[in-house]
Amino acid sequence: MNDRVTVKTLQSMKKKGAKISMLTAYDYPTAKMLDAANVDCILVGDSLGMVVQGKTTTIPVTLDEMIYHGEIVARATAHAMVIVDLPFPVGQLSIAHTVESAATIMKRTQCQAVKMEGGHQQASAIRAMVDAGIPTIAHIGLRPQSVHALGGYRVQRDAEQLMNDAKAAQEAGAFCILIECVPPELAKQATEMLSVPTIGIGAGPFCDGQVLVTNDMLGWNSGYVPKFVRQYADLKNAAEQAVTRFRDDVQKGIFPSADESF
Ligand code: KIV
Q1: C-beta of 203 in contact with ligand 1 (< 6 A)
Q2: 176 Cβ closer than 6 Å to some ligand 1 atom
Q3: b/e per residue, 132-166, with b = 16+ CB within 10 A?
Q4: For this structure, is 180 an active site residue?
Q5: Where are the domains of the chain?
Q6: What's the whole-model pTM score?
Q7: Of all atoms in ligand 1, which is nearest to the CA of residue 211?
């Protein structure tokens, strides 16, 4: 039986008031673990530029890199909806380029949907992707690919712009709207206004679902952790302790034992 989460599943979750869970993955074991834990959606985010590649923004991430990681994650899953990000500047250039790039992602990764940063200004591109049969999530509020234009990673407080972006993206056919770093009351207003589900990150508790970067919530990261992250595990410390024990055992000559040898 195919019990993959679909666009319709998310729509009916919004109707029922059932909250949607989304986490990021970039590799096979993480994607398998999230799928086994029954997370509704797995996002192959361009956050991979910062989380996996150690870069300071998501801007350098390429289409080929998104396809490489997207294919691995999609292959690891059977249940979750897999969504792959359109990297910068896909979505900001010509509509034909956007649709072609999104179609290539769908074809080569076998993901179920794509996500694109933008709302009102990208409405024609969203419409063209949806018309081409590509389920599309619009990412509004703080758009990390526009970090330099926005003057940094700041909370976005412009209510009029948020509502315009949300409305335009829904009207263009986006099946879900991801809202990043806005005050809770604005996310609430958008969630109540829209018929499609909203997924929040740093947007308070009123969205239809929540997303976090998995490395942040597992404590498996190399730097700054935003205020909105709840850390559910401390994998970095656990791993460091394990590695230290391995190093000590090697230095003492007590690894490997007879049982660990042929
Ligand atoms: O790229 C990403 O991981 C994202 C999340 C921050 C939502 O867009």
Answers
A1: no
A2: no
A3: eebbbbbbbbbbbbebeeeeeeeebeeeeebbbbb
A4: yes
A5: 7-231, 234-262
A6: 0.97
A7: 7
Alpha helices in 173-234 (DSSP H): 184-193, 214-217
User: Per CATH, the architecture of 7-231 is what?
Assistant: Alpha-Beta Barrel (3.20)
Give nearest CA residue, ligand 1 atom 4: 45
Cα distance between residue 77 and residue 42, in whole Å: 9
Ligand 1 lined by 181 (C-beta under 6 Å): no
213 lines ligand 1 (CB under 6 A): yes
Annotated active-site residue in 65, 160, 180, 260: 180
Give yes or no for residue 43 CB within 6 A of ligand 1: yes
Q: How far is CA 202 from CA 121, 226, 242, in A?
A: 23, 9, 32
Which residue's CA lies nearest to atom 1 of ligand 1?
45
- pLDDT tens across the length of the chain (262 residues): 469 999 999 999 999 999 999 999 999 999 999 999 999 999 999 999 999 999 999 999 999 999 999 999 999 999 999 999 999 999 888 999 999 999 999 999 999 999 999 999 999 999 999 999 999 999 999 999 999 999 999 999 999 999 999 999 999 999 999 999 999 999 999 999 999 999 999 999 999 999 999 999 999 998 789 999 999 999 999 999 999 999 999 999 999 999 999 9
